[in-house]
Amino acid sequence: MDPELILAGLEELAARMGLRVRYENFGEGEIEVRSGRCRLKGENMFIMDRRLKTAERVELLLAELKRLDLTGVYIKPYLRALLEG
Hints:
Blueprint: H1 3-16, E1 20-24, E2 36-40, E3 43-49, H2 54-66, H3 77-84
Parallel strand pairs: 1-3
Antiparallel strand pairs: 2-3
């Protein structure tokens, strides 16, 4: 399946779970910054490095969504297979 389609599906699922996915440029500097979940101005966000490849984005977002309680949430079958796999 197309990684871009998978990523779009994961982003949509994250939004339904109240987790906004935001892409930022993490520059090279003195402080190491990694993609991850945070709370900013009362909003749950997953901030991801824009420089990551689609496959890496999918992997990170899958890992984060696996941590959420998805009980009772409709998840498209191809996404459910990835989340349970």
